[in-house]
Amino acid sequence: MQPLVENLFECPNQAVVLGLSGGRDSVALLRMLILRGIPTYACHVHHGIRAEAADADARFCRELCEKLGVPFEEYRVNVPMLARQCGESVETTARQQRRRILAEHARQVGCSAVALAHHADDQAETVLFNIARGSAGLRGMLSSRQEDGITWLRPMLRMRRSQITAWLVQIGQDWCEDATNTDPTAAARNTVRLQVIPALNEALGRDVVPALLRGARMQEEVRMALEAALVALPIMDPQGRLYLPFLLNQPEELCKAVVQYYLRLCGVPDISEASVNKVCSILPATSESSFCNLPGGFRARRAHRRLSIECPDQI
């Protein structure tokens, strides 16, 4: 199974921080990074959700890293309490807190990259999830993405879950099993993984994951081509603001594509069609409002025939 490790891609030569949950996927990525000779700092986030089971996961991660000689750090956060305070789901809050902690730990240890253990089956689930939401289209996760000075890497997106499991069994490496992963009612993604994809496989008489991955890859190529074309247009001024006299003379479809590209460029998270439409509505000088709020605490503001994005710490 050595070729599986050799397929690990988009990994830099410098050190990375690894989000280590103790589950199969992150444990496999830890072992692969070590085999590739990539200096790794393991970071475990205890979400305060599964009581003794979560404590056991943290102990497993610490002991595994001690055995392998990998620097390890554990962080604890009360996700249920934070979810209640901000009115978000526990799943969303946990994801946001993990990303925040991983980025902060990377800066603390002097790393510019964080490695996440999503694989090909996760990618297929994400594609279906995005299609069902109707806001992101046929899109999956990116293998590499820069945000706030951190490069977020998903080096296992070409690997199937079954391959990863077989490899761990072959090398004799155990992992922690999260009982909630087998409960279709625990999270929407569980339902997609445990019920929707198997139903599609049965209905079509084949494994649908390769087709979903292919569709997402083709859509990503179209997006990259569009962004390359947008760069050649006079859409921004020297200060990095959208230049509205040019933009407002373009077809509505192109205007929306430019706005979506600009929001992504400015680091706005969870960009939906509703977010793009909100921004487009404030572009004309005749609009009743000159600003609108965006996900992640960002704000779009129109002034002096320009549009700029204000970060949370600027508001």
Describe this structure in words.
- This protein is an alpha/beta fold.
- 49% of the residues lie in helices and 13% in strands.
- The radius of gyration is 21 Å and the shape is globular.
In percent terms, what proportion of residues is strand?
A: 5-15%
Number of strands: 10
Sheet with the most strands, sense and barrel status: 6 strands, mixed
Number of helices: 12
Class from secondary-structure proportions:
alpha/beta
Distance linking N and C termini: 51 Å
Instruction: State the share of residues found in helices, binned by percent.
Output: 40-55%
Which whole number gives the mean pLDDT? 89
Radius of gyration, Cα only, in angstroms? Answer: 21 Å
- What's the SSE pattern? HEHEHEHHEHEEHHHEHHHEEE
Low-confidence stretches: none
What's the overall geometry? globular
Strand order of the largest sheet: 3-2-1-4-6-5
